[in-house]
Design brief:
The complex is a heterodimer of chains A (about 450) and B (about 250). By secondary structure, chain A is of the alpha+beta class. Chain A has 13 helices and 20 strands. Among the domains of chain A are: about 80 residues, no CATH class; about 110 residues, Uridine Diphospho-n-acetylenolpyruvylglucosamine Reductase, domain 3. The longest helix of chain A is centred in the middle third of the chain and has 18 residues. Chain B has one domain: 3-Layer(aba) Sandwich (Rossmann fold). Helices cover about 50% and strands about 15% of the residues of chain B. Chain B is built from nine helices and nine strands. The chains are: A alpha+beta (about 450), B alpha/beta (about 250). Chains A and B meet through strand 5 of A and helix 2 of B. Chain B: It holds the Pfam family adh_short. Chain B: InterPro entries: NAD(P)-bd_dom_sf, SDR_fam.
């Protein structure tokens, strides 16, 4: 047994880790025990990538099977990382259509969480660019699923948190790009209303996201910097610039667990004040930035999760439907600013409709915040969850480590349909994760 | 005809072999992968073609079947510019102490086979007047230790072979690189207790091999820390060294 956790380092639990080298061996691993789930690069924050009993490490399956430069279609094993894909195919003029806030996620993980990026409001999530998936089911079959073939299994697998089976391979479409640069425009917003207006105005931008200062209070509540972006064409680059900037390996690393008091209301407030002022100064015009800092600002610090100390942290990411979102978001931010310990990673962004049956996105605003684990944080987040549920919102399973069944069931009305499809693919319940035990599975008497 | 250079990777399906093939393909080399099981190599060849738009072929090669070596070399699609041997077998020291067959397999896999095949390529390269030969040996060959001297002695023999070959071949325009990786996180070392700061990923070894070929380095310790560690281990007096258990 090995102690394993997600990116948030909470919870830490025991599991057997298997490293199969062939798809046949994956099948044997699934058949061998009740309570197995596949794990990619371990970037889900909570317990999604940890098997109830055993966990199948998939990162060894890192081959590209085929690539067609005429269409951008690529067939990949599930353990290929987006970072690998970007490094290899970026210089050839292709990028993933959708990238989340870190490039160190596997293809299998990106599909299972139907990850979204800064373009979800106009281009949808990762699953929208998946043509087909090779799936090893709990029933013991290896099946190719797509929108046309076994579409129920396909839409349950996109966003299905690995619970429909082990994703072995997938065919996805890449986006042709002229360069690896983004033309970025920063807009400063002095409060929540201005931030939401700026995001609405940014609907036509390919990429838009707001960094929100959770330490700001009173009339400053919700003050934000909104980052809009477009892919830059070759003609926009200055002479002599590399069309594709290289992504540096994370240089700076957090070498040890920092004492959990490193982040306190004073250090966070000081950081946020500085960050807002520096950003506000850049607001107005547009400039070119490499795709790496634009999409993956935290990837440059490896093991940044250690900044929260040994006890780990929780990320709370909810989405609130557009109607009435202003009041709910205001209420949530008010409570958070009163507490004062939400960290600098606070993100507000607009989402569109999700594609998978259990995909997180719905048309509205998503708010993501980190909280160090201490004091009464679990009770506090339960309070926030009640506001989310009342507003018809939900929480992102890839980030979750602690929501209640009631919150989950209220947020995902298509759950019964998902469960029925899962049952048909896995009647004996072979595929089970810690997350599914917590939120999905029948409670054993 | 392509003007690109070609690299042959012996032991192409190992983790270090795959990483090395990727490093060379990324740098524009066409790749020949060789290993015991061609079916296992084919997906890796397809990976190289799809990623880097290079040519990649597969050939059957068994390091214990020395009788097949001449046929293997003449059967390659083209004589490569660079040949890299990543073949090796860690084995189990305790078994090798009493089991002659196991000890023989370790010795042949780490010394006899790699030395003979690279020796054959050296003759071809010298006849042509160019080429680079890379042997992946081990820090374990720097001094025989109680915990792995069967493996270590075979690697020591291989290192000595490469050293002598380098001295001879350098006069004929052929360069020989000895690589000593230290601990690498691979299938071979899975389950072993490795010392974190002295352990690298296979990709680091692949990149180091490419770098050594491009810069014509003679002996590469993939992590500089190992050069220091082995210097200390090599200079310990035998009277002290024999009391150590590692």
């Amino acid at each position: 047994m090995t102690l394993v956790s997600g990116w948030g380092r909470f919870p830490v639990v025991d599991t057997d880790i298997l490293r199969p080298r062939s798809f046949e061996a994956v099948g044997e691993a699934v058949a061998g025990a009740s309570g197995t789930v596949a794990r990619g690069n371990g970037r889900a924050y909570g317990d999604a990538g940890i098997g109830a009993i055993r966990t199948i490490a998939m990162t060894g399956f890192d081959r590209v099977r085929s690539f067609d430069p005429a269409t951008g279609r690529i067939r990949l094993e599930a353990g290929v990382l987006l970072s690998d894909l970007i490094d290899t195919f970026g210089p050839r003029g292709f990028l993933p259509f959708v990238v989340p806030g870190t490039r160190f996620v596997s293809i299998g993980g990106a599909i299972a969480a139907d990850v979204h990026g800064k373009n979800h409001h106009c281009e949808g999530g990762f699953g929208r660019y998946v043509d087909s998936i090779l799936l090893r089911t709990g029933r013991g079959e290896t099946i190719e699923v797509s929108r046309e073939q076994d579409s129920d299994a396909f839409f349950a697998t996109v966003g299905g948190m690995g619970l429909t089976g082990v994703i072995l391979e997938a065919t996805i479409r890449l986006r042709p790009v002229e360069t690896g640069w983004i033309r970025e425009r920063v807009v400063s917003a002095s409060d929540l209303d201005a931030a939401m207006r700026a995001l609405d105005a940014g609907d036509s931008a390919t990429y838009s996201v707001a960094w929100i200062d959770c330490a700001a209070r009173g009339s400053d509540l919700g003050r934000s910097l909104i980052y809009l972006g477009e892919h830059a064409g070759r003609a926009e680059l200055p002479d002599g610039a590399d069309a594709f900037p290289l992504g540096k390996d994370p240089g700076l690393a957090v070498p040890v667990d920092l004492p959990s008091m490193t982040l306190n209301r004073y250090s966070i407030r000081a950081f946020n004040e500085l960050y807002y002022r520096m950003g506000a100064r850049r607001a107005g015009g547009s400039h070119l930035v490499s795709l790496f800092p634009y999409f993956f600002p935290l990837d440059s610090i490896s093991a940044w999760n250690r900044i929260y100390g040994r006890r780990g942290f929780l990320q709370h990411q909810c989405v609130i439907p557009e109607q009435g979102a202003r009041d709910v978001l205001g209420d949530i931010l008010e409570r958070i600013s009163r507490r004062g310990d939400a960290s600098f990673l606070a993100v507000l962004k607009k989402l569109g409709q999700g594609d998978g049956i259990l995909s997180f996105p719905l048309p509205g605003y998503t708010l993501a915040l980190d909280f160090p684990i201490r004091g009464d944080i679990l009770n506090f987040l339960d309070e926030i969850d009640r506001l989310v549920v009342t507003a018809g919102g939900r929480l992102y399973l890839a980030k979750d480590a602690r929501q209640s069944r009631a919150t989950f069931e209220a947020g995902y009305p298509a759950l019964q349909r998902f469960k029925a499809i899962r049952k048909s693919l896995d009647p004996a319940g072979k595929i089970r994760s810690r997350l599914s035990q917590r939120l999905f599975d029948e409670v054993q008497p | 005809m392509t003007s690109r250079k070609t690299v042959l990777v012996l032991g192409g399906s190992s983790d270090i072999g795959r990483a090395t093939a990727r490093a060379f393909a990324k740098a524009g080399y066409d790749v020949q992968l060789a290993g015991r099981d061609v079916a296992v190599l084919e997906p890796d060849a397809a990976d190289l073609r799809a990623r880097y738009n290079v040519e990649a072929s597969v050939s059957k090669f068994d390091v214990l079947d020395t009788a097949s070596f001449e046929g293997f070399v003449s059967g390659l699609p083209a004589l490569p510019d660079v040949v890299i041997s990543i073949v090796g077998l860690l084995g189990t020291q305790e078994n090798a102490q009493g089991d002659l067959d196991h000890a023989t397999t370790i010795m042949r896999s780490n010394y006899e086979g790699p030395a003979l095949i690279l020796g054959l390529f050296a003759e071809k390269f010298l006849a042509r007047g160019s080429g680079t030969i890379v042997g992946v040996s081990s820090v374990a060959g720097d001094r025989g230790r109680a915990s792995n001297y069967v493996y270590g002695s075979a690697k020591a023999g291989f290192s000595a072979f490469l050293s002598g070959l380098r001295a001879r071949a350098s006069r004929g325009g052929v360069h020989v690189v000895t690589v000593k990786p230290g601990f690498v996180r691979t299938r071979m070392t899975e389950g072993m207790k490795l010392i974190g700061p002295l352990t690298v990923e296979a990709k680091v070894v692949g990149d180091a091999i490419l770098n050594a070929v491009q810069r014509r380095t003679d002996v590469v310790y993939v992590s500089g820390k190992w050069r220091l560690v082995m210097l200390i281990i090599k200079t310990l007096p035998e009277a002290i060294f024999k009391k150590l258990k590692f």
